[in-house]
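[scheduler] slot 2 assigned
[scheduler] job type: sequence-to-structure, two independent chains
[scheduler] chain ordering preserved from manifest
[runner] begin chain α
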Amino acid sequence: EVQLVESGGGLVQAGGSLRLSCVASGFTFDGYAIGWFRQAPGKEREGVSCINPSASYTTYADSVKGRFTISRDNAKNTVYLHMNSLKPEDAAVYYCAAGCSWPGDFWGQGTQVAVAS
Protein backbone atom coordinates (compact mmCIF):
# COMPACT_ATOMS: atom_id res chain seq x y z
CA GLU A 1 0.00 0.00 0.00
CA VAL A 2 1.33 3.41 -1.00
CA GLN A 3 1.41 5.89 1.85
CA LEU A 4 2.72 9.36 2.53
CA VAL A 5 2.25 10.41 6.14
CA GLU A 6 2.90 13.95 7.28
CA SER A 7 3.62 14.92 10.87
CA GLY A 8 5.12 17.72 12.91
CA GLY A 9 2.44 20.33 12.57
CA GLY A 10 1.07 22.26 15.50
CA LEU A 11 0.59 25.68 17.02
CA VAL A 12 3.58 28.00 17.16
CA GLN A 13 4.11 31.66 17.94
CA ALA A 14 5.04 33.99 15.11
CA GLY A 15 8.78 33.90 14.66
CA GLY A 16 8.97 30.33 15.84
CA SER A 17 9.99 27.15 14.07
CA LEU A 18 8.59 23.77 13.19
CA ARG A 19 9.93 20.75 11.38
CA LEU A 20 7.49 18.78 9.26
CA SER A 21 8.18 15.19 8.27
CA CYS A 22 6.81 13.16 5.40
CA VAL A 23 7.34 9.42 5.69
CA ALA A 24 6.76 7.35 2.58
CA SER A 25 6.12 3.67 2.05
CA GLY A 26 4.92 1.34 -0.66
CA PHE A 27 6.82 2.85 -3.58
CA THR A 28 10.40 3.48 -4.71
CA PHE A 29 10.96 6.61 -2.66
CA ASP A 30 14.38 7.50 -4.04
CA GLY A 31 12.98 7.50 -7.56
CA TYR A 32 10.66 10.44 -6.90
CA ALA A 33 10.93 14.14 -6.34
CA ILE A 34 8.90 15.06 -3.28
CA GLY A 35 7.02 18.30 -2.91
CA TRP A 36 5.45 20.16 -0.01
CA PHE A 37 2.23 22.02 -0.63
CA ARG A 38 -0.09 24.01 1.60
CA GLN A 39 -3.66 25.17 1.63
CA ALA A 40 -5.08 27.83 3.89
CA PRO A 41 -8.82 28.25 4.46
CA GLY A 42 -10.45 29.94 1.50
CA LYS A 43 -7.27 29.85 -0.56
CA GLU A 44 -5.99 27.66 -3.35
CA ARG A 45 -3.40 25.01 -2.67
CA GLU A 46 0.09 26.29 -3.42
CA GLY A 47 3.47 24.70 -3.88
CA VAL A 48 5.91 25.46 -1.08
CA SER A 49 9.04 23.51 -1.90
CA CYS A 50 10.29 20.52 -3.81
CA ILE A 51 13.39 18.32 -3.73
CA ASN A 52 14.68 16.01 -6.42
CA PRO A 53 15.43 12.33 -5.77
CA SER A 54 19.13 12.82 -5.04
CA ALA A 55 18.58 16.00 -3.00
CA SER A 56 20.86 17.87 -5.36
CA TYR A 57 18.17 20.33 -6.44
CA THR A 58 15.54 22.17 -4.45
CA THR A 59 12.96 24.81 -5.23
CA TYR A 60 11.05 27.19 -3.00
CA ALA A 61 8.10 29.50 -3.33
CA ASP A 62 9.16 33.14 -3.11
CA SER A 63 7.10 33.54 0.03
CA VAL A 64 9.21 31.04 1.97
CA LYS A 65 12.69 31.51 0.49
CA GLY A 66 15.27 32.08 3.18
CA ARG A 67 12.95 30.79 5.91
CA PHE A 68 12.12 27.21 4.90
CA THR A 69 14.54 24.41 4.06
CA ILE A 70 13.61 21.11 2.47
CA SER A 71 15.75 18.02 2.92
CA ARG A 72 15.43 14.28 2.55
CA ASP A 73 16.87 11.08 3.96
CA ASN A 74 16.41 8.33 1.41
CA ALA A 75 17.57 5.70 3.90
CA LYS A 76 14.57 6.63 6.05
CA ASN A 77 12.14 7.29 3.18
CA THR A 78 11.57 10.70 4.72
CA VAL A 79 11.43 14.28 3.52
CA TYR A 80 11.59 17.17 5.97
CA LEU A 81 10.48 20.76 5.80
CA HIS A 82 12.29 22.96 8.30
CA MET A 83 10.27 26.11 8.82
CA ASN A 84 11.82 29.09 10.57
CA SER A 85 10.62 32.63 11.24
CA LEU A 86 7.03 31.52 10.84
CA LYS A 87 4.44 34.13 10.01
CA PRO A 88 0.67 34.08 10.49
CA GLU A 89 0.30 33.79 6.72
CA ASP A 90 2.16 30.46 6.84
CA ALA A 91 -0.77 28.89 8.68
CA ALA A 92 -2.28 26.16 6.53
CA VAL A 93 -2.62 22.43 6.10
CA TYR A 94 0.67 21.19 4.73
CA TYR A 95 0.77 18.21 2.40
CA CYS A 96 3.56 16.22 0.84
CA ALA A 97 3.28 14.54 -2.51
CA ALA A 98 5.37 12.44 -4.86
CA GLY A 99 6.15 15.03 -7.49
CA CYS A 100 6.60 18.77 -7.71
CA SER A 101 3.13 19.46 -9.04
CA TRP A 102 -0.08 18.74 -7.18
CA PRO A 103 -1.31 16.10 -6.70
CA GLY A 104 1.67 14.18 -8.01
CA ASP A 105 1.52 10.41 -8.17
CA PHE A 106 0.77 9.97 -4.47
CA TRP A 107 -0.08 12.37 -1.67
CA GLY A 108 -0.66 12.47 2.05
CA GLN A 109 -3.51 13.62 4.22
CA GLY A 110 -1.81 16.70 5.55
CA THR A 111 -0.69 18.19 8.85
CA GLN A 112 -2.06 21.42 10.31
CA VAL A 113 0.19 24.36 11.03
CA ALA A 114 -1.17 27.26 13.05
CA VAL A 115 0.80 30.43 13.75
CA ALA A 116 -0.26 32.76 16.53
CA SER A 117 0.53 36.44 16.11
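[runner] end chain α
[runner] begin chain β
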Amino acid sequence: QVQLVESGGGLVQPGGSLRLSCAASGFTSDYFPLSWFRQAPGKEREMVAVIGSSSSIVEYADFVKGRFTISRDNAKETVSLQMNSLTPEDPAVYYCNVDRFGSPYWGQGTPVTVSS
Protein backbone atom coordinates (compact mmCIF):
# COMPACT_ATOMS: atom_id res chain seq x y z
CA GLN A 1 0.00 0.00 0.00
CA VAL A 2 1.00 3.62 -0.35
CA GLN A 3 3.34 4.74 2.41
CA LEU A 4 4.96 8.09 3.03
CA VAL A 5 7.43 8.32 5.90
CA GLU A 6 8.79 11.69 6.94
CA SER A 7 11.93 12.33 8.95
CA GLY A 8 14.25 15.15 9.87
CA GLY A 9 12.11 17.33 12.08
CA GLY A 10 13.33 18.68 15.38
CA LEU A 11 14.20 21.75 17.40
CA VAL A 12 16.12 24.57 15.80
CA GLN A 13 16.92 28.14 16.79
CA PRO A 14 15.48 31.06 14.84
CA GLY A 15 17.54 31.59 11.73
CA GLY A 16 18.60 27.96 11.69
CA SER A 17 18.08 25.22 9.13
CA LEU A 18 16.54 21.79 8.91
CA ARG A 19 16.25 19.27 6.13
CA LEU A 20 13.14 17.12 5.98
CA SER A 21 12.94 13.93 3.99
CA CYS A 22 10.05 11.75 2.90
CA ALA A 23 10.44 8.18 1.69
CA ALA A 24 7.70 6.93 -0.62
CA SER A 25 6.79 3.31 -1.18
CA GLY A 26 3.93 1.19 -2.45
CA PHE A 27 3.51 3.12 -5.68
CA THR A 28 5.55 4.49 -8.55
CA SER A 29 6.31 7.84 -7.00
CA ASP A 30 8.12 9.28 -9.99
CA TYR A 31 4.83 9.43 -11.90
CA PHE A 32 3.29 11.93 -9.48
CA PRO A 33 3.89 15.40 -8.09
CA LEU A 34 4.92 15.32 -4.43
CA SER A 35 4.14 17.99 -1.89
CA TRP A 36 4.96 19.21 1.57
CA PHE A 37 2.22 20.61 3.78
CA ARG A 38 2.30 21.87 7.33
CA GLN A 39 -0.17 22.27 10.13
CA ALA A 40 0.37 24.42 13.19
CA PRO A 41 -1.73 23.97 16.34
CA GLY A 42 -5.18 25.47 15.88
CA LYS A 43 -4.59 26.20 12.21
CA GLU A 44 -5.60 24.58 8.95
CA ARG A 45 -3.16 22.43 7.04
CA GLU A 46 -1.47 24.50 4.34
CA MET A 47 0.61 23.73 1.30
CA VAL A 48 4.30 24.60 1.61
CA ALA A 49 5.79 23.38 -1.66
CA VAL A 50 5.08 21.02 -4.54
CA ILE A 51 7.39 19.46 -7.10
CA GLY A 52 6.41 17.91 -10.39
CA SER A 53 7.26 14.38 -11.39
CA SER A 54 10.34 15.41 -13.37
CA SER A 55 11.30 18.26 -11.04
CA SER A 56 10.75 20.73 -13.87
CA ILE A 57 7.90 22.41 -12.03
CA VAL A 58 8.14 23.59 -8.46
CA GLU A 59 5.83 25.89 -6.57
CA TYR A 60 6.13 27.46 -3.15
CA ALA A 61 3.80 29.17 -0.77
CA ASP A 62 4.60 32.87 -0.53
CA PHE A 63 5.60 32.54 3.11
CA VAL A 64 8.53 30.20 2.29
CA LYS A 65 9.76 31.60 -1.01
CA GLY A 66 13.48 32.22 -0.92
CA ARG A 67 13.91 30.22 2.28
CA PHE A 68 12.77 26.66 1.51
CA THR A 69 13.79 24.40 -1.36
CA ILE A 70 11.96 21.27 -2.41
CA SER A 71 13.74 18.52 -4.32
CA ARG A 72 13.22 14.90 -5.21
CA ASP A 73 15.27 11.86 -6.08
CA ASN A 74 13.18 9.54 -8.20
CA ALA A 75 15.76 6.77 -8.07
CA LYS A 76 15.53 6.73 -4.26
CA GLU A 77 11.82 7.61 -4.25
CA THR A 78 12.34 10.45 -1.84
CA VAL A 79 11.32 14.08 -1.63
CA SER A 80 13.15 16.57 0.57
CA LEU A 81 12.52 20.01 1.94
CA GLN A 82 15.52 22.15 2.81
CA MET A 83 14.38 24.82 5.25
CA ASN A 84 16.64 27.79 5.88
CA SER A 85 16.19 30.98 7.88
CA LEU A 86 13.52 29.41 10.05
CA THR A 87 11.35 31.85 11.97
CA PRO A 88 8.98 31.56 14.95
CA GLU A 89 6.14 31.41 12.37
CA ASP A 90 7.41 28.12 10.91
CA PRO A 91 6.77 25.63 13.76
CA ALA A 92 4.28 22.99 12.72
CA VAL A 93 3.95 19.35 11.90
CA TYR A 94 5.21 18.93 8.36
CA TYR A 95 3.55 16.33 6.15
CA CYS A 96 4.49 14.70 2.91
CA ASN A 97 1.64 14.30 0.43
CA VAL A 98 0.85 12.65 -2.86
CA ASP A 99 -2.43 12.83 -4.73
CA ARG A 100 -2.98 9.71 -6.78
CA PHE A 101 -5.92 9.85 -9.14
CA GLY A 102 -7.87 12.14 -6.82
CA SER A 103 -7.02 10.29 -3.61
CA PRO A 104 -4.66 12.10 -1.22
CA TYR A 105 -2.15 10.18 0.86
CA TRP A 106 -0.31 11.55 3.87
CA GLY A 107 2.60 10.57 6.00
CA GLN A 108 2.48 10.64 9.79
CA GLY A 109 4.21 14.01 9.87
CA THR A 110 7.41 15.25 11.44
CA PRO A 111 7.33 18.10 13.97
CA VAL A 112 9.41 21.23 13.60
CA THR A 113 9.98 23.54 16.54
CA VAL A 114 11.70 26.89 16.31
CA SER A 115 12.82 28.31 19.61
CA SER A 116 15.77 29.98 21.20
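[runner] end chain β
[qc] chain β: The chain has a mean pLDDT of 95.
[scheduler] slot 2 released
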